[in-house]
Write a structure and sequence with these properties.
By secondary structure, the protein is α/β, with parallel strands linked by helices. It has seven helices and nine strands. The strands form three sheets. A five-stranded mixed beta sheet has the order 1-2-7-3-4, with helices on both faces. A two-stranded antiparallel ribbon has the order 5-6. Strands 8-9 form a two-stranded antiparallel ribbon. β5 and β6 form a beta hairpin. α4 packs across α5 and α5 packs antiparallel against α6. The model has no long low-confidence stretch (mean pLDDT about 90).
Length: about 170
C-alpha cells in the first residue's frame, strides 16, 4: 500500500499528507497554507519548522517570527533537466541531523515539510529515523515509499541511490 493521493478539502491533516513521525515530538507534512499554521500550532504545539525547499514562504517566516517558532531551512534545489531534486551538501545534511537530534530533546514538537510532503520530506524523515531513532535504512526506505516517494528518473530514485551510498547498503 502507498499513500499517493491527498484530498484538497477537509482538515489540514488530510490535505497536507500530515502524519506523526514520533509521538508528540516530530511530524511530517506538505506545505501548510497560511490558514493551516494557527491550526497546527494550536493542535500540535509546534516549536520548530524544518523546511526542505528552495525558499521559505514569506507568510511562514512572518508567522514563525510572530509566534517564536524556529525555522531550519534546508535548501533543496531541483535539476529541471533531469527532473530530480538535488540532495543538499553534506554540511547541510550534518546540520539537519544535529539540529533534529537537538530539537528532539529540546525543541519539540517540530514539523518537517516540503511542498508535497513526499520526496524531500521523505528523505529527511528517513535520515531522522536512521540517525535519531536508530532505524535500519531499509525500513526508512520502505516508509519513504509508503508515504508516496516518487522522485524517480528512468525507474531509479536519486534519493535511494544517495541513501545506498551514504549507508553502504543495497535497498530493496
Amino acid at each position: 500500500m502507498r499513500i499517493s493521493i491527498i484530498a484538497p478539502w477537509g482538515p489540514p491533516e488530510t490535505r497536507l499528507r500530515f502524519f506523526e513521525v514520533e509521538p508528540g515530538t516530530c511530524y511530517r507534512s506538505g506545505q501548510p497554507r497560511p490558514k493551516d499554521l494557527p491550526y497546527l500550532l494550536n493542535k500540535y504545539k509546534l516549536r520548530s519548522f524544518v523546511v526542505a525547499k528552495a525558499k521559505v514562504n514569506d507568510y511562514e517566516t512572518r508567522f514563525a517570527e510572530l509566534k517564536g517558532i524556529n525555522i531550519l531551512h534546508l535548501k533543496f534545489k531541483r535539476d529541471f533537466l533531469r527532473f530530480k531534486h538535488i540532495v543538499p551538501p553534506e554540511k547541510n545534511i550534518a546540520e539537519f541531523i544535529e539540529s533534529a537530534k537537538y530539537m528532539r530533546r529540546n525543541m519539540q514538537p517540530f514539523i518537517i515539510h516540503c511542498r508535497r510532503g513526499k520526496d524531500r520530506t521523505g528523505l529527511l524523515v528517513a535520515l531522522y529515523r536512521i540517525e535519531a531513532q536508530g532505524w535500519h535504512p531499509q525500513l526508512a526506505w520502505e516508509e519513504m515509499r509508503y508515504f508516496g516517494h516518487a522522485a524517480f528518473v528512468n525507474g531509479n530514485s536519486y534519493f535511494k541511490k544517495w541513501l545506498e551510498a551514504r549507508y553502504n547498503i543495497k535497498l530493496a
